[in-house]
Hints:
Oligomer: single chain
Strand content: under 5%
Order of helices and strands: HHEEEEHHHHHHHHHHHH
Amino acid sequence: xxxxxxxxxxxxxxxxxxxxxxxxxxxxxxxxxxxxxxxxxxxxxxxxxxxxxxxxxxxxxxxxxxxxxxxxxxxxxxxxxxxxxxxxxxxxxxxxxxxxxxxxxxxxxxxxxxxxxxxxxxxxxxxxxxxxxxxxxxxxxxxxxxxxxxxxxxxxxxxxxxxxxxxxxxxxxxxxxxxxxxxxxxxxxxxxxxxxxxxxxxxxxxxxxxxxxxxxxxxxxxxxxxxxxxxxxxxxxxxxxxxxxxxxxxxxxxxxxxxxxxxxxxxxxxxxxxxxxxxxxxxxxxxxxxxxxxxxxxxxxxxxxxxxxxxxxxxxxxxxxxxxxxxxxxxxxxxxxxxxxxxxxxxxxxxxxxxxxxxxxxxxxxxxxxx
Length: 371
């Protein structure tokens, strides 16, 4: 097992490198980069723009547009057209502020060298480092992700097993109808419905409208802090869990049905073993392999991609919203920094999944696999 872990960790490096390289190149050719955005804002507004860009909390860029001939600036991202009245020296200064004055390959290798020590640089449009921003947003995303995964697995696995055991019964039919409806409803639409019904929208005012804590939360006793925190989590967690719960329930059921039909189950029953021992001593261990294999994807999805709209709707300032705004604003350090973190986390979670396989079924031996 040690040799397998070492091989996986060695393969992690080129995998991470290629993923970062592809995304870095794509970002360089996307229109509307940070320099173009500054120029467009300056020329479009025709007024003074102050404190638009800060680097390391010290340097500021301010400019004033005016009439005049068109000026173009040449830089690593190409030609910036339409910068009427702007001095080329100012455009060059913009490129230097954003770190775009160096060749593309030099910027990439410099970035990867810094990323090895988790130095993600500073945000283009926020007076903070990327690490500080990520750490400040991480508690929100971790709260949503971990609680959602916990609820999904605690509900979906027992329900899937029950549906498999009672396959074709009324219980199976009615719960399947609920699962189908849950699958068909997008999480963000369900979130809006929850707000309208339970957060004072139209009917009931039972849960808070936004945030993870109430005003004055810091002054509350410990038990009231916990209750207030859980009270705020109810609606976002329900909205975030609806789709994952439905899919995992059917995956668990189908996995169990597949295993129940295997010859070893028939043999165990023929030997007179109790049904509970057959199901949970033999079937459960084998059926859970396919369920466990999807755990990293579920966790990563809930921590990042699945959180974006939920965080927007419930005004939760987490990593999903941070990454979304960074893509929209072309804040490359945040985009690439969060991408590096989540990619590395996902690859490591894949290794954890393989190790979990051996705990569930000791018959699996990764040492015999050719990587």
